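[audit] Reproducing an earlier prediction to check determinism. Same input, same settings, fresh worker. If the C-alpha coordinates differ from the archived copy the diff job will pick it up downstream; this log only records the rerun itself.
[audit] input (511 residues):
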Amino acid sequence: MNNLKFAFRQLVKNPGFTVVAVFTLALGIGATTAIFSVVNGVLLRPLPYKEPHRIVTVLHGGWNPVAPADYLDWRQQQTVFEQIAAAQYWGGTLTGRDKPEAIPGLSMGEGLLELLGIEPMLGRTFAADEFQPGKNQVLVLSHRLWQRRFGGETNIIGQTVTLDGKPYTKREGFYRTLLERIGSLPGVQSASAVNHLPLGGDMWTLSIGIEGRPPPLPGESIGAGFRVCRPGYFRTMGIPLLKGRDFTQRDTLDAPGVAIINETLARQQFPNEEPIGKRIAFDDPRNNPKWLTIVGVIKDVKQFDLKEPAINEVYWPFSQQPDYLQETAGHVAYMTIVVRTVTDPLNCVRPIEQILHNIDQNLPVSNVASSEQVMANAVWQPRFNLFLIGVFAAAGLVLAAVGIYGVISYSVSQRTHEIGIRMALGAARHEILKLVIHRGMLLAVLGVAIGLGGSLLLSRLIRTQLFGVPATDPLTFVSVSVLLLAVALLACLVPARRATKVDPMEALRYE
Protein backbone atom coordinates (compact mmCIF):
# COMPACT_ATOMS: atom_id res chain seq x y z
CA MET A 1 0.00 0.00 0.00
CA ASN A 2 2.84 2.38 0.80
CA ASN A 3 4.37 1.71 -2.60
CA LEU A 4 1.07 2.54 -4.27
CA LYS A 5 0.79 5.79 -2.31
CA PHE A 6 4.35 6.71 -3.26
CA ALA A 7 3.69 5.94 -6.93
CA PHE A 8 0.51 8.00 -6.85
CA ARG A 9 2.32 10.98 -5.32
CA GLN A 10 4.99 10.75 -8.03
CA LEU A 11 2.35 10.75 -10.73
CA VAL A 12 0.64 13.77 -9.22
CA LYS A 13 4.01 15.51 -8.86
CA ASN A 14 4.77 14.99 -12.57
CA PRO A 15 1.47 15.58 -14.40
CA GLY A 16 3.09 15.82 -17.83
CA PHE A 17 4.75 12.43 -17.51
CA THR A 18 1.52 10.97 -16.08
CA VAL A 19 -0.58 12.16 -19.03
CA VAL A 20 1.92 10.80 -21.56
CA ALA A 21 2.21 7.42 -19.81
CA VAL A 22 -1.54 6.93 -19.33
CA PHE A 23 -2.32 8.01 -22.89
CA THR A 24 0.33 5.69 -24.32
CA LEU A 25 -0.93 2.72 -22.32
CA ALA A 26 -4.56 3.43 -23.24
CA LEU A 27 -3.73 3.70 -26.93
CA GLY A 28 -1.65 0.53 -26.89
CA ILE A 29 -4.32 -1.47 -25.06
CA GLY A 30 -7.04 -0.17 -27.37
CA ALA A 31 -5.05 -0.97 -30.52
CA THR A 32 -4.25 -4.47 -29.25
CA THR A 33 -7.91 -5.12 -28.46
CA ALA A 34 -8.98 -3.91 -31.90
CA ILE A 35 -6.40 -6.09 -33.65
CA PHE A 36 -7.48 -9.16 -31.71
CA SER A 37 -11.17 -8.49 -32.43
CA VAL A 38 -10.51 -8.31 -36.18
CA VAL A 39 -8.21 -11.34 -36.26
CA ASN A 40 -10.67 -13.35 -34.16
CA GLY A 41 -13.63 -12.43 -36.37
CA VAL A 42 -11.87 -12.89 -39.72
CA LEU A 43 -9.28 -15.60 -39.14
CA LEU A 44 -9.89 -17.51 -35.90
CA ARG A 45 -13.65 -17.87 -35.65
CA PRO A 46 -14.63 -21.07 -37.51
CA LEU A 47 -17.26 -21.17 -40.25
CA PRO A 48 -20.69 -22.34 -39.04
CA TYR A 49 -20.35 -25.79 -40.61
CA LYS A 50 -19.48 -29.23 -39.33
CA GLU A 51 -15.67 -29.60 -39.22
CA PRO A 52 -15.05 -26.59 -41.50
CA HIS A 53 -11.31 -27.28 -41.65
CA ARG A 54 -12.07 -30.41 -43.68
CA ILE A 55 -14.17 -28.63 -46.34
CA VAL A 56 -12.59 -27.53 -49.64
CA THR A 57 -13.95 -26.04 -52.88
CA VAL A 58 -12.81 -27.62 -56.14
CA LEU A 59 -12.77 -25.52 -59.35
CA HIS A 60 -11.24 -25.91 -62.80
CA GLY A 61 -7.90 -24.14 -62.67
CA GLY A 62 -8.85 -22.77 -59.25
CA TRP A 63 -11.28 -20.34 -60.91
CA ASN A 64 -13.73 -21.76 -63.47
CA PRO A 65 -16.88 -23.73 -62.57
CA VAL A 66 -16.82 -27.50 -62.98
CA ALA A 67 -18.80 -28.96 -65.89
CA PRO A 68 -21.68 -31.23 -64.77
CA ALA A 69 -20.23 -34.20 -66.67
CA ASP A 70 -16.86 -33.76 -64.93
CA TYR A 71 -18.57 -33.53 -61.54
CA LEU A 72 -20.48 -36.77 -62.14
CA ASP A 73 -17.26 -38.53 -63.18
CA TRP A 74 -15.41 -37.21 -60.13
CA ARG A 75 -18.20 -38.25 -57.80
CA GLN A 76 -18.18 -41.76 -59.19
CA GLN A 77 -14.42 -42.26 -59.45
CA GLN A 78 -12.83 -40.20 -56.67
CA THR A 79 -11.35 -41.88 -53.60
CA VAL A 80 -9.85 -38.82 -51.90
CA PHE A 81 -12.89 -37.20 -50.27
CA GLU A 82 -15.27 -38.62 -47.71
CA GLN A 83 -18.18 -36.79 -49.37
CA ILE A 84 -18.54 -34.71 -52.52
CA ALA A 85 -21.49 -32.53 -53.54
CA ALA A 86 -22.18 -29.69 -55.97
CA ALA A 87 -24.17 -26.48 -56.10
CA GLN A 88 -24.62 -23.51 -58.39
CA TYR A 89 -25.92 -20.01 -57.81
CA TRP A 90 -29.55 -19.64 -58.73
CA GLY A 91 -32.12 -16.89 -58.61
CA GLY A 92 -35.86 -16.57 -59.02
CA THR A 93 -38.78 -14.20 -58.65
CA LEU A 94 -40.94 -14.88 -55.61
CA THR A 95 -44.56 -13.82 -56.10
CA GLY A 96 -47.88 -14.38 -54.41
CA ARG A 97 -47.30 -12.30 -51.27
CA ASP A 98 -46.96 -8.54 -51.10
CA LYS A 99 -44.86 -7.32 -54.04
CA PRO A 100 -42.68 -9.54 -56.25
CA GLU A 101 -39.11 -10.02 -55.06
CA ALA A 102 -35.97 -11.35 -56.72
CA ILE A 103 -34.29 -13.79 -54.35
CA PRO A 104 -30.86 -15.43 -54.62
CA GLY A 105 -30.37 -19.06 -53.85
CA LEU A 106 -28.53 -22.28 -54.55
CA SER A 107 -29.50 -25.13 -56.81
CA MET A 108 -27.80 -28.03 -55.10
CA GLY A 109 -27.01 -31.66 -55.68
CA GLU A 110 -27.66 -34.56 -53.38
CA GLY A 111 -25.75 -34.60 -50.10
CA LEU A 112 -24.64 -30.94 -49.87
CA LEU A 113 -26.59 -30.04 -46.72
CA GLU A 114 -25.43 -33.25 -45.04
CA LEU A 115 -21.82 -32.51 -46.05
CA LEU A 116 -22.05 -29.08 -44.42
CA GLY A 117 -23.79 -30.48 -41.35
CA ILE A 118 -26.82 -28.20 -41.71
CA GLU A 119 -29.95 -29.29 -39.88
CA PRO A 120 -33.35 -27.65 -40.53
CA MET A 121 -35.06 -25.69 -37.76
CA LEU A 122 -38.43 -26.84 -39.11
CA GLY A 123 -39.37 -29.63 -41.47
CA ARG A 124 -36.73 -31.60 -43.35
CA THR A 125 -34.14 -31.33 -46.07
CA PHE A 126 -34.38 -32.95 -49.50
CA ALA A 127 -35.14 -36.63 -49.97
CA ALA A 128 -33.04 -38.70 -52.38
CA ASP A 129 -35.81 -39.04 -54.99
CA GLU A 130 -36.39 -35.27 -55.05
CA PHE A 131 -33.16 -34.79 -56.97
CA GLN A 132 -34.70 -36.62 -59.95
CA PRO A 133 -36.14 -34.62 -62.89
CA GLY A 134 -39.83 -33.87 -62.43
CA LYS A 135 -39.71 -34.40 -58.67
CA ASN A 136 -37.59 -31.40 -57.70
CA GLN A 137 -40.35 -28.84 -57.07
CA VAL A 138 -39.38 -28.44 -53.40
CA LEU A 139 -37.53 -25.70 -51.52
CA VAL A 140 -35.70 -25.13 -48.26
CA LEU A 141 -35.99 -21.52 -47.04
CA SER A 142 -33.24 -19.60 -45.30
CA HIS A 143 -34.00 -18.35 -41.79
CA ARG A 144 -33.74 -14.72 -42.92
CA LEU A 145 -36.20 -15.16 -45.81
CA TRP A 146 -38.57 -17.14 -43.58
CA GLN A 147 -38.60 -14.38 -40.98
CA ARG A 148 -38.72 -11.41 -43.38
CA ARG A 149 -41.08 -12.64 -46.09
CA PHE A 150 -43.24 -15.13 -44.20
CA GLY A 151 -43.19 -13.59 -40.74
CA GLY A 152 -41.65 -16.68 -39.16
CA GLU A 153 -44.87 -18.67 -39.62
CA THR A 154 -44.45 -22.12 -38.07
CA ASN A 155 -47.05 -23.62 -40.44
CA ILE A 156 -44.98 -22.74 -43.50
CA ILE A 157 -44.05 -26.41 -43.98
CA GLY A 158 -46.07 -27.84 -46.86
CA GLN A 159 -47.25 -24.47 -48.20
CA THR A 160 -46.88 -23.65 -51.89
CA VAL A 161 -44.84 -20.65 -53.07
CA THR A 162 -44.65 -19.30 -56.61
CA LEU A 163 -41.29 -18.79 -58.28
CA ASP A 164 -40.90 -17.43 -61.78
CA GLY A 165 -44.61 -17.86 -62.31
CA LYS A 166 -44.55 -16.00 -65.64
CA PRO A 167 -41.27 -16.27 -67.51
CA TYR A 168 -40.90 -14.13 -70.63
CA THR A 169 -40.40 -16.11 -73.89
CA LYS A 170 -40.67 -12.99 -76.23
CA ARG A 171 -38.12 -10.86 -74.24
CA GLU A 172 -36.95 -8.56 -77.04
CA GLY A 173 -40.23 -6.67 -77.07
CA PHE A 174 -40.29 -6.49 -73.30
CA TYR A 175 -36.85 -4.89 -72.95
CA ARG A 176 -37.41 -2.55 -75.87
CA THR A 177 -40.64 -1.27 -74.31
CA LEU A 178 -39.13 -1.05 -70.85
CA LEU A 179 -36.04 0.89 -71.95
CA GLU A 180 -38.04 3.26 -74.17
CA ARG A 181 -40.29 4.17 -71.25
CA ILE A 182 -37.37 4.57 -68.85
CA GLY A 183 -35.56 6.76 -71.40
CA SER A 184 -38.57 9.08 -71.56
CA LEU A 185 -38.53 9.80 -67.81
CA PRO A 186 -37.60 13.37 -66.78
CA GLY A 187 -33.90 13.63 -65.96
CA VAL A 188 -32.93 10.42 -67.79
CA GLN A 189 -30.34 10.83 -70.54
CA SER A 190 -30.13 7.20 -71.69
CA ALA A 191 -30.93 3.64 -70.61
CA SER A 192 -29.69 0.22 -71.67
CA ALA A 193 -29.00 -3.26 -70.30
CA VAL A 194 -26.14 -5.73 -69.86
CA ASN A 195 -25.93 -9.26 -68.52
CA HIS A 196 -23.12 -8.52 -66.05
CA LEU A 197 -22.26 -5.08 -64.71
CA PRO A 198 -18.57 -4.10 -64.49
CA LEU A 199 -17.24 -4.89 -61.02
CA GLY A 200 -20.53 -6.66 -60.31
CA GLY A 201 -18.80 -9.81 -59.09
CA ASP A 202 -19.42 -12.10 -62.07
CA MET A 203 -17.22 -12.92 -65.04
CA TRP A 204 -17.71 -15.38 -67.89
CA THR A 205 -14.76 -16.36 -70.03
CA LEU A 206 -14.96 -18.29 -73.29
CA SER A 207 -12.47 -19.34 -75.97
CA ILE A 208 -12.67 -17.65 -79.35
CA GLY A 209 -11.46 -18.52 -82.82
CA ILE A 210 -10.39 -16.06 -85.52
CA GLU A 211 -11.31 -16.63 -89.15
CA GLY A 212 -8.41 -17.56 -91.40
CA ARG A 213 -6.11 -18.63 -88.58
CA PRO A 214 -5.20 -22.20 -87.64
CA PRO A 215 -6.79 -23.59 -84.48
CA PRO A 216 -4.61 -22.90 -81.42
CA LEU A 217 -2.61 -25.69 -79.85
CA PRO A 218 -3.87 -27.28 -76.60
CA GLY A 219 -3.39 -24.85 -73.75
CA GLU A 220 -2.90 -21.88 -76.11
CA SER A 221 -6.54 -20.98 -76.78
CA ILE A 222 -7.57 -17.32 -76.94
CA GLY A 223 -9.74 -16.55 -73.92
CA ALA A 224 -12.09 -13.57 -73.74
CA GLY A 225 -14.60 -12.21 -71.29
CA PHE A 226 -18.13 -12.58 -72.64
CA ARG A 227 -20.77 -9.84 -72.30
CA VAL A 228 -24.29 -9.48 -73.72
CA CYS A 229 -25.68 -5.95 -73.97
CA ARG A 230 -28.29 -3.83 -75.71
CA PRO A 231 -27.81 -0.78 -77.97
CA GLY A 232 -26.72 2.34 -76.10
CA TYR A 233 -24.97 0.45 -73.31
CA PHE A 234 -21.54 1.98 -73.96
CA ARG A 235 -22.97 5.51 -74.19
CA THR A 236 -24.94 5.03 -70.98
CA MET A 237 -21.91 3.73 -69.10
CA GLY A 238 -19.60 6.38 -70.55
CA ILE A 239 -17.36 3.79 -72.24
CA PRO A 240 -15.64 5.40 -75.27
CA LEU A 241 -16.16 3.74 -78.65
CA LEU A 242 -12.71 3.96 -80.26
CA LYS A 243 -13.57 2.55 -83.67
CA GLY A 244 -16.58 1.44 -85.64
CA ARG A 245 -20.19 1.55 -84.45
CA ASP A 246 -22.45 0.55 -81.57
CA PHE A 247 -25.10 -2.16 -81.76
CA THR A 248 -28.43 -1.09 -83.27
CA GLN A 249 -32.00 -2.36 -83.37
CA ARG A 250 -31.21 -3.84 -86.80
CA ASP A 251 -28.81 -6.39 -85.24
CA THR A 252 -31.43 -9.14 -84.92
CA LEU A 253 -31.37 -12.93 -85.15
CA ASP A 254 -32.02 -12.68 -88.88
CA ALA A 255 -29.16 -10.25 -89.47
CA PRO A 256 -25.46 -11.22 -89.80
CA GLY A 257 -23.83 -11.82 -86.41
CA VAL A 258 -21.82 -8.90 -85.04
CA ALA A 259 -19.55 -8.27 -82.06
CA ILE A 260 -17.67 -5.45 -80.37
CA ILE A 261 -14.26 -6.08 -78.82
CA ASN A 262 -12.11 -4.12 -76.40
CA GLU A 263 -8.79 -2.47 -77.21
CA THR A 264 -6.76 -5.16 -75.40
CA LEU A 265 -8.12 -7.91 -77.66
CA ALA A 266 -7.64 -5.68 -80.71
CA ARG A 267 -4.06 -4.87 -79.72
CA GLN A 268 -3.10 -8.47 -78.94
CA GLN A 269 -4.76 -10.26 -81.86
CA PHE A 270 -4.71 -7.57 -84.56
CA PRO A 271 -1.55 -5.55 -83.79
CA ASN A 272 -0.84 -4.55 -87.39
CA GLU A 273 -4.31 -5.05 -88.84
CA GLU A 274 -7.62 -3.26 -88.90
CA PRO A 275 -9.90 -5.29 -86.56
CA ILE A 276 -13.12 -3.83 -88.00
CA GLY A 277 -14.53 -6.37 -90.43
CA LYS A 278 -12.60 -9.35 -89.05
CA ARG A 279 -14.67 -12.35 -87.94
CA ILE A 280 -14.49 -14.32 -84.70
CA ALA A 281 -16.46 -17.24 -83.27
CA PHE A 282 -17.12 -18.77 -79.87
CA ASP A 283 -17.58 -22.17 -81.52
CA ASP A 284 -14.92 -24.47 -82.88
CA PRO A 285 -13.83 -22.82 -86.19
CA ARG A 286 -13.56 -26.29 -87.77
CA ASN A 287 -17.21 -27.24 -87.16
CA ASN A 288 -19.40 -24.77 -89.04
CA PRO A 289 -19.13 -21.99 -86.43
CA LYS A 290 -21.41 -18.97 -86.07
CA TRP A 291 -19.11 -16.19 -87.26
CA LEU A 292 -19.42 -12.73 -85.70
CA THR A 293 -18.15 -9.69 -87.60
CA ILE A 294 -16.29 -7.14 -85.48
CA VAL A 295 -18.09 -3.81 -85.94
CA GLY A 296 -16.54 -1.78 -83.11
CA VAL A 297 -13.69 -1.42 -80.62
CA ILE A 298 -14.23 0.07 -77.14
CA LYS A 299 -11.83 1.33 -74.52
CA ASP A 300 -10.80 -1.20 -71.88
CA VAL A 301 -13.03 -1.59 -68.83
CA LYS A 302 -12.01 -3.12 -65.49
CA GLN A 303 -14.65 -5.80 -65.17
CA PHE A 304 -13.58 -7.84 -62.16
CA ASP A 305 -10.50 -6.53 -60.40
CA LEU A 306 -9.10 -3.00 -60.29
CA LYS A 307 -5.61 -4.29 -59.51
CA GLU A 308 -5.25 -6.48 -62.58
CA PRO A 309 -4.81 -5.31 -66.19
CA ALA A 310 -7.81 -5.51 -68.51
CA ILE A 311 -8.47 -8.87 -70.18
CA ASN A 312 -9.75 -9.65 -73.68
CA GLU A 313 -13.46 -8.89 -74.02
CA VAL A 314 -16.16 -9.59 -76.59
CA TYR A 315 -19.63 -8.01 -76.52
CA TRP A 316 -22.57 -9.67 -78.27
CA PRO A 317 -25.89 -7.92 -78.96
CA PHE A 318 -28.77 -9.15 -76.82
CA SER A 319 -31.10 -9.47 -79.82
CA GLN A 320 -28.71 -11.97 -81.47
CA GLN A 321 -28.36 -14.22 -78.42
CA PRO A 322 -31.00 -16.99 -78.56
CA ASP A 323 -30.49 -18.09 -74.95
CA TYR A 324 -31.21 -14.59 -73.62
CA LEU A 325 -34.25 -14.29 -75.86
CA GLN A 326 -35.88 -17.61 -75.04
CA GLU A 327 -34.37 -19.56 -72.13
CA THR A 328 -35.77 -19.31 -68.59
CA ALA A 329 -32.65 -20.37 -66.67
CA GLY A 330 -31.63 -17.78 -64.09
CA HIS A 331 -28.24 -16.99 -65.58
CA VAL A 332 -29.79 -15.87 -68.90
CA ALA A 333 -33.27 -14.78 -67.83
CA TYR A 334 -32.12 -11.59 -66.13
CA MET A 335 -30.39 -8.45 -67.34
CA THR A 336 -29.05 -5.47 -65.41
CA ILE A 337 -30.70 -2.19 -66.39
CA VAL A 338 -28.29 0.78 -66.49
CA VAL A 339 -29.57 4.36 -66.48
CA ARG A 340 -27.67 7.64 -66.90
CA THR A 341 -29.37 10.65 -65.31
CA VAL A 342 -28.74 14.35 -64.86
CA THR A 343 -29.99 14.21 -61.25
CA ASP A 344 -29.59 11.82 -58.33
CA PRO A 345 -30.08 8.41 -60.01
CA LEU A 346 -31.79 6.95 -56.94
CA ASN A 347 -34.65 9.43 -57.50
CA CYS A 348 -35.60 7.43 -60.59
CA VAL A 349 -36.06 4.14 -58.73
CA ARG A 350 -39.73 4.63 -57.86
CA PRO A 351 -40.78 5.72 -61.41
CA ILE A 352 -38.87 2.76 -62.90
CA GLU A 353 -40.61 0.38 -60.48
CA GLN A 354 -43.94 1.82 -61.59
CA ILE A 355 -43.06 1.37 -65.27
CA LEU A 356 -42.11 -2.25 -64.66
CA HIS A 357 -45.26 -2.84 -62.62
CA ASN A 358 -47.38 -1.46 -65.45
CA ILE A 359 -45.73 -3.88 -67.89
CA ASP A 360 -45.92 -6.90 -65.58
CA GLN A 361 -46.81 -6.70 -61.90
CA ASN A 362 -45.02 -10.01 -61.19
CA LEU A 363 -41.56 -8.67 -62.08
CA PRO A 364 -39.41 -7.17 -59.28
CA VAL A 365 -36.80 -4.44 -59.19
CA SER A 366 -33.88 -5.65 -57.08
CA ASN A 367 -30.27 -4.82 -56.23
CA VAL A 368 -30.71 -1.12 -56.97
CA ALA A 369 -27.43 0.75 -56.59
CA SER A 370 -25.65 3.83 -57.88
CA SER A 371 -22.32 3.49 -59.66
CA GLU A 372 -20.59 4.72 -56.51
CA GLN A 373 -22.24 1.96 -54.48
CA VAL A 374 -21.26 -0.66 -57.06
CA MET A 375 -17.67 0.54 -56.87
CA ALA A 376 -17.76 0.50 -53.07
CA ASN A 377 -19.08 -3.08 -53.06
CA ALA A 378 -16.34 -4.13 -55.50
CA VAL A 379 -13.49 -2.74 -53.41
CA TRP A 380 -14.84 -3.43 -49.93
CA GLN A 381 -12.11 -5.93 -49.09
CA PRO A 382 -9.07 -3.78 -50.02
CA ARG A 383 -10.87 -0.77 -48.59
CA PHE A 384 -11.42 -2.66 -45.32
CA ASN A 385 -7.80 -3.78 -45.31
CA LEU A 386 -6.60 -0.23 -45.88
CA PHE A 387 -8.99 1.03 -43.20
CA LEU A 388 -7.42 -1.35 -40.70
CA ILE A 389 -3.94 -0.41 -41.88
CA GLY A 390 -4.90 3.25 -41.60
CA VAL A 391 -6.24 2.81 -38.06
CA PHE A 392 -3.11 1.02 -36.93
CA ALA A 393 -0.90 3.52 -38.78
CA ALA A 394 -2.72 6.40 -37.08
CA ALA A 395 -2.29 4.68 -33.72
CA GLY A 396 1.40 4.17 -34.49
CA LEU A 397 1.73 7.79 -35.56
CA VAL A 398 0.14 9.01 -32.33
CA LEU A 399 2.33 6.69 -30.28
CA ALA A 400 5.40 7.94 -32.14
CA ALA A 401 4.37 11.53 -31.58
CA VAL A 402 3.73 10.93 -27.88
CA GLY A 403 7.00 9.04 -27.56
CA ILE A 404 8.97 11.79 -29.29
CA TYR A 405 7.36 14.41 -27.08
CA GLY A 406 8.00 12.42 -23.93
CA VAL A 407 11.64 11.57 -24.72
CA ILE A 408 12.66 15.05 -25.86
CA SER A 409 10.71 16.74 -23.07
CA TYR A 410 12.36 14.53 -20.49
CA SER A 411 15.78 15.12 -22.07
CA VAL A 412 15.31 18.90 -21.89
CA SER A 413 13.99 18.81 -18.33
CA GLN A 414 17.12 16.87 -17.29
CA ARG A 415 19.19 19.85 -18.50
CA THR A 416 17.47 22.32 -16.19
CA HIS A 417 20.59 22.47 -13.98
CA GLU A 418 22.78 23.14 -17.04
CA ILE A 419 20.36 25.82 -18.21
CA GLY A 420 20.54 27.50 -14.79
CA ILE A 421 24.34 27.60 -14.97
CA ARG A 422 24.28 29.11 -18.47
CA MET A 423 21.76 31.74 -17.41
CA ALA A 424 23.79 32.55 -14.27
CA LEU A 425 26.80 33.10 -16.50
CA GLY A 426 24.84 35.59 -18.62
CA ALA A 427 23.31 33.51 -21.42
CA ALA A 428 20.22 35.16 -22.90
CA ARG A 429 16.91 33.32 -22.98
CA HIS A 430 16.76 33.21 -26.80
CA GLU A 431 20.23 31.64 -26.81
CA ILE A 432 19.04 28.95 -24.40
CA LEU A 433 16.00 28.27 -26.58
CA LYS A 434 18.17 28.06 -29.69
CA LEU A 435 20.57 25.62 -28.01
CA VAL A 436 17.81 23.34 -26.73
CA ILE A 437 15.88 23.34 -30.00
CA HIS A 438 19.03 22.69 -32.05
CA ARG A 439 20.00 19.60 -30.04
CA GLY A 440 16.47 18.26 -29.81
CA MET A 441 15.66 18.77 -33.47
CA LEU A 442 18.94 17.17 -34.52
CA LEU A 443 17.78 13.92 -32.92
CA ALA A 444 14.30 14.30 -34.44
CA VAL A 445 15.62 14.90 -37.97
CA LEU A 446 17.92 11.88 -37.68
CA GLY A 447 15.02 9.71 -36.51
CA VAL A 448 12.70 10.90 -39.29
CA ALA A 449 15.39 10.20 -41.89
CA ILE A 450 15.85 6.64 -40.64
CA GLY A 451 12.07 6.18 -40.53
CA LEU A 452 11.65 7.39 -44.12
CA GLY A 453 14.26 4.92 -45.30
CA GLY A 454 12.49 2.05 -43.59
CA SER A 455 9.10 3.18 -44.94
CA LEU A 456 10.40 3.24 -48.51
CA LEU A 457 11.61 -0.35 -48.13
CA LEU A 458 8.39 -1.64 -46.54
CA SER A 459 5.89 0.32 -48.66
CA ARG A 460 5.94 -2.38 -51.37
CA LEU A 461 3.99 -4.63 -49.01
CA ILE A 462 0.82 -2.51 -49.42
CA ARG A 463 1.23 -1.82 -53.15
CA THR A 464 -1.42 -4.39 -54.12
CA GLN A 465 -4.00 -2.65 -51.92
CA LEU A 466 -3.71 0.74 -53.66
CA PHE A 467 -5.49 1.95 -56.80
CA GLY A 468 -4.29 5.05 -58.61
CA VAL A 469 -1.99 6.04 -55.73
CA PRO A 470 1.69 5.07 -55.60
CA ALA A 471 2.91 3.24 -52.51
CA THR A 472 5.63 5.91 -52.17
CA ASP A 473 3.24 8.85 -52.33
CA PRO A 474 5.36 11.98 -51.77
CA LEU A 475 2.52 13.91 -50.12
CA THR A 476 2.05 11.22 -47.48
CA PHE A 477 5.75 10.99 -46.67
CA VAL A 478 6.13 14.78 -46.48
CA SER A 479 2.99 15.23 -44.36
CA VAL A 480 3.99 12.60 -41.79
CA SER A 481 7.55 13.94 -41.62
CA VAL A 482 6.35 17.51 -41.07
CA LEU A 483 3.91 16.34 -38.38
CA LEU A 484 6.57 14.43 -36.45
CA LEU A 485 9.05 17.31 -36.72
CA ALA A 486 6.36 19.72 -35.50
CA VAL A 487 5.72 17.46 -32.49
CA ALA A 488 9.44 17.33 -31.79
CA LEU A 489 9.66 21.13 -32.02
CA LEU A 490 6.78 21.45 -29.57
CA ALA A 491 8.46 18.94 -27.26
CA CYS A 492 11.59 21.12 -27.26
CA LEU A 493 9.83 24.46 -26.85
CA VAL A 494 7.50 23.73 -23.94
CA PRO A 495 10.02 22.53 -21.34
CA ALA A 496 12.74 24.89 -22.62
CA ARG A 497 10.49 27.96 -22.24
CA ARG A 498 9.44 26.72 -18.82
CA ALA A 499 13.09 26.28 -17.80
CA THR A 500 14.13 29.74 -19.04
CA LYS A 501 11.43 31.36 -16.89
CA VAL A 502 12.78 29.74 -13.72
CA ASP A 503 15.02 31.88 -11.47
CA PRO A 504 18.68 30.86 -12.10
CA MET A 505 19.22 30.14 -8.40
CA GLU A 506 16.26 27.72 -8.36
CA ALA A 507 17.51 26.11 -11.56
CA LEU A 508 20.94 25.62 -9.95
CA ARG A 509 19.25 23.75 -7.05
CA TYR A 510 17.24 21.52 -9.51
CA GLU A 511 18.04 17.81 -9.41
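[audit] rerun output stored. Observation attached for the diff report: The radius of gyration is 34 Å.
[audit] end
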